[in-house]
């Protein structure tokens, strides 16, 4: 198990959300992968 600091987790979430905003609509698989990653990381914050 890897311990992740709050700041590094928030930085990863911000980076992924920024990428989501820049992705073209036709890159569906990449968009879904990033959306899932953001959802999982936000779930870690709520634990």
Key terms for this structure?
mainly alpha, 74% helix, 47 residues
Structure description:
The chain is mostly helical and 47 residues long. The chain has one domain (6-45). It contains 2 helices and no strands. Helix 1 runs antiparallel to helix 2 (28-45).
List the helices and strands and how they pair.
Layout: H1 6-22, H2 28-45
Q: Kindly report the average pLDDT value.
A: 87
Determine the N-to-C terminus distance.
15 Å
Uncertain runs are none
Tell me the radius of gyration. 12 Å
Provide a brief overview of the structure.
With about 45 residues, the chain is mainly α. It has two helices and no strands. It is elongated, with a radius of gyration of 12 Å.
């Amino acid at each position: 198990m890897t311990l992740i600091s709050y700041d590094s987790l928030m930085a990863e979430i911000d980076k992924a959300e920024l990428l989501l905003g820049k992705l073209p609509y036709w890159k569906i698989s990449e968009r879904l992968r990033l959306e899932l990653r953001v959802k999982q990381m936000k779930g870690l914050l709520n634990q």
